[in-house]
Amino acid sequence: MHIKFLHIFVIFFLACKSEIKTKPLANLQNVDFYTNLDTNKYTIYLTFDDGALTGTSNCYTICKNMEVPASFFMIGWHVCRTKKAQKIFNTIKIDTNQFEVYNHSYTHAYGQYKSYYKNPHLVVQDFKRSVDSLNFTNNHWIRLPGINIWNYKNIKYSLPSFKKIVDSLDKNGFKIVGWDIEWEENKFGLCKQDPDFIYQRVNECIQSKKVRKPKNLVLLMHDNMYRTTQDSLKLVQLIVKIKQNPKFQFANLSNYPN
Fold first, then answer.
1. Which of 72, 89, 92, 55 is nearest to 185 (CA)?
2. pLDDT tens for each residue of 64-94
3. E-only strand ranges, 52-179
């Protein structure tokens, strides 16, 4: 295991030293990430928010080479502001065999959540702008900025003050996906907890059924937490721990049960 781990990290380290390539880093075209799920196992959904940022390419590189599916919630403004951001967004978006890209709004409220959520029409228009700018024409799964809310089929989790927001988005065809646990950021925007702590939380929450759907856990992370080699290694370590557990498997959000 140690040799395999070292090999994975070396691949990752070298890849992070250069620009992300449009060509996939690993040839996984024959790997089926969608139809071979074991219903007897616990399913983990890795989700990365706020791209495209400096750490996004690291998240993609790690998951690609470790053969792990992942879902990215992208912010329209972050993608559109630089050619480098557009490049990594398009790289992930076309790699549909392993990855999925979702709408995380266009502005992310510019961090002004209180005023943003006072106006349901503004919120709907912000997500529509992201649909238009990032071509999400066939994809209406979204995640709200700065708050954990669900409105997906029979999963309803919200606050009374957000009812108008949720209803307005629902009327416009948007389905809201939240998360079960979060790998939090510290004051520097890097990993607040270590991989052992997050692994224990994953294990405890999913086995004690402290999740929206039994045997399924959505893990929220933020791309920029992994912008450094040291913190990227923490993501590698978490994935290794989950992979070592024969009761666990990874999947993309499109596999999330109805």
1. 55
2. 999 999 999 999 999 999 999 999 999 999 9
3. 70-74, 99-103, 141-142, 150-152, 155-157, 175-176
What three-state secondary structure class fits 35?
coil
Kindly report the pTM of this predicted structure.
Answer: 0.89
Query: What is the C-alpha separation between 238 and 220, in angstroms, rounded?
Result: 13
**Are 46 and 219 within 8 A, CB to CB?**
yes
Burial (Cβ within 10 Å: 0-12, 13-18, ≥19) of residue 122 = middle
Tens-digit pLDDT profile for residues 181-202? 999 999 999 999 999 999 999 9
Q: Which whole number is the average pLDDT over 121-126?
A: 97
- How far, in Å, CA of 158 to CA of 201, rounded? 23
Half-sphere exposure of 69 (CA within 13 A, CB side): 27
Question: In order of start, what are the domains of the chain with their CATH numbers?
Answer: 40-255 (3.20.20.370)
Cα(51)–Cα(90) distance, integer angstroms: 12
d(CA 25, CA 41): 28
Question: How far, in whole angstroms, is CA 137 from its chain's centroid?
Answer: 19
Residue 155 burial (10 A CB sphere; 0-12, 13-18, 19+): middle
